[in-house]
Amino acid sequence: MDLKELRTRIEDIDSRILQCLAERRDVALAVAQSKANQASRIRDTERETSLLLQLMEQGAELGLDPSYLTRLYHIIIEDSVLMQQAWVQQGKGTGTLQIAHLGTAGSYSHLAAQGYAGRRQCQLQGLSCETFRDVLTAVEDGRTPLGILPIENSTSGSINEVYDLLRHTHLHIVAETYLSVEHQILVREGEEETPITTLYGHPQAIAQCSRYLSHLDGVNVVACPSSAHAMEKVANSQESGIAALGSQSGGALFRLVAVANNLADQPENQTRFILVQRQPVQVPSQLPARTSVIMATHNHPGALADALIILRQHELNLIKLESRPMPGNPWEELFYMDIAIHEQSPQWQGALKELKSMTRFMKVLGCYADERVKATHVMHPERSQHK
């Protein structure tokens, strides 16, 4: 066969792979329905381990590398787990899901909202906002039922502005989602060889690529309200030598091409987003849950330690602790905590009662399904025999 025929054959194979992935998703949803009826836990790591071992053995007979199959099926299993959790939480989605997000189509917040809606079999109807405050206001005013906000990144850390805004809103955190972020330098088609003099990007994207950007001599790095703003500015400008920090999919929307990729300081660059709405949700017992709170301790030595001791006494797993200055009270701190627990559990209710009695201020921001899906790791049988 000539090259054209070979490429046609690859396209046919890829089409069948897509059909099989869609069929696998349908079966995964049926599994979720069965687990919901039986109140069974969604995650079965023993089953995942057995599946991966079986696939590696079958793959070895076909000449496929075990590490390649493991990476591939980690993605497939993660998608399956998150989709099943979404179904157990709210059932089969219908129609559209309205979500306010920072920036226009192509921004990282927009991509995260798309992924969240897609796992719920819904089309995204996005509402573009200029600032994080605008996202909250759109939900508070009833213009949209949901808002999505980035809250922390694995490279640049917490997004302090969002933490500060959460203190003043009556909205509830009802979900979280994660987005793998791969930053690229994007330019207009035909300008791939033009030296870059100005680079536009969102402050978080700039911070996450600080090591790479520090070596760009003669380039003026300019902050924009969102990555979509940066890409739109480059796409619509007639100026030569300008570029944007953005994603591959976002760049495609603006017909920009990448001249550099994988720019983040850390190779595994993920952003965690929270979703907020006016009413809280109740997380089904078979789903792992996370409860987020704000508290202010009394201003005396050991006050925070005393609060953390209460969590330990109730055997609660603290997975996030963030401090922020308290406005109007110099040198005093507010503390944001994420705890791996269902809000309605007696274990948490007992701890909450004690914490309220010993703190100056205590507010539960929300309880929601924990979407951290840790990869199941197995060793290839042949390798384990040589240990």
From TrEMBL:
One of its GO terms (biological process) is L-phenylalanine biosynthetic process. It comes from the Bacteria. GO terms for cellular component: cytoplasm. Signal peptide: none annotated. The record marks T271 as: Essential for prephenate dehydratase activity. Pfam families: CM_2 (PF01817), PDT (PF00800). GO terms for molecular function: chorismate mutase activity; prephenate dehydratase activity. It is found in: Cytoplasm. Pathway: Metabolic intermediate biosynthesis; prephenate biosynthesis; prephenate from chorismate: step 1/1; Amino-acid biosynthesis; L-phenylalanine biosynthesis; phenylpyruvate from prephenate: step 1/1. Its EC number is 4.2.1.51, 5.4.99.5. Residues 98-278 form the Prephenate dehydratase domain. Residues 1-88 form the Chorismate mutase domain. Its main location: cytoplasm. Residues 292-369 form the ACT domain. Keywords: Amino-acid biosynthesis, Aromatic amino acid biosynthesis, Cytoplasm, Isomerase, Lyase, Multifunctional enzyme, Phenylalanine biosynthesis. Substrate binds at R7, R24, K35, D44, E48, S80, Q84. It catalyses: chorismate = prephenate; prephenate + H(+) = 3-phenylpyruvate + CO2 + H2O. InterPro entries: ACT-like_dom_sf, ACT_dom, Chor_mutase/pphenate_deHydtase, Chorismate_II_sf, CM_dom_sf, CM_II_prokaryot, Preph_deHydtase, Preph_deHydtase_CS. Catalyzes the Claisen rearrangement of chorismate to prephenate and the decarboxylation/dehydration of prephenate to phenylpyruvate. NCBIfam families: PRK11898.1 (NF008865). This is Bifunctional chorismate mutase/prephenate dehydratase. It comes from Aliidiomarina halalkaliphila.
